Amino acid sequence: MSGLDALYQDLILDHAKHPHGYGLADAEGRTADVHQRNPVCGDEITLRLRLDGDTVRDVTWEGAGCSISQASASMLASLVGGDGMPRATASALIDGFRASLRSRGTIPLDEERFGDAAALSGVSKYTARVKCAMLAWVALEEALLLA
Ligand code: ZN
Q: Which residue blocks in the chain are alpha helix, DSSP H?
């Protein structure tokens, strides 16, 4: 973590302490639940996706683990949920996030597109932590396939 920009580190810790979308919403309408684990670090997440037609209604989650995994889930929930995002846009964001996180720092995340989650760009330099940052995004990807 020491190589991460200090401002970004603050944002990550802030999301980890005050997570967005924490606590599963009522399972009504079109809903998909996914559980994902990252055994390397001990991170776990249960993510619930709710859709209205082809629009993401919200993303809520519960979990435990390191601050990167928890912050990433919080950033994802605030980015994708609540603003009527089409499911195709959400899928494209997941693809873009993965490409950046696997780029070892060569493809930074665009703040306009990824919001607070752009703070996770620096994680791509730490291969061991990429799975932590990806956990919630992989869960949402699976939920989009199920819903
Ligand atoms: Zn972790």
A: 6-17, 67-80, 87-101, 111-114, 127-146
Q: How far is the CA of 43 from the centre of ligand 1 (A)?
A: 5
CATH code of residue 122: 3.90.1010.10
The total of structural domains in the chain comes to: 1
Task: Compute the distance from residue 68 Cα to the ligand 1 centre, in Å.
Answer: 6
Q: At what angle do helices 67-80 and 6-17 cross, to 10 degrees?
A: 80
Tell me the pLDDT tens digit for each residue of 13-34: 999 999 999 999 999 999 999 9
- Those residues whose beta carbon sits under 5 angstroms from the ion ligand 1 are 41, 43, 65-66, 69, 132
Which residue range(s) make up the domain with 85?
3-146
Q: What is the pTM of this model?
A: 0.94
CA of 72 to the centre of ligand 1 (A): 10
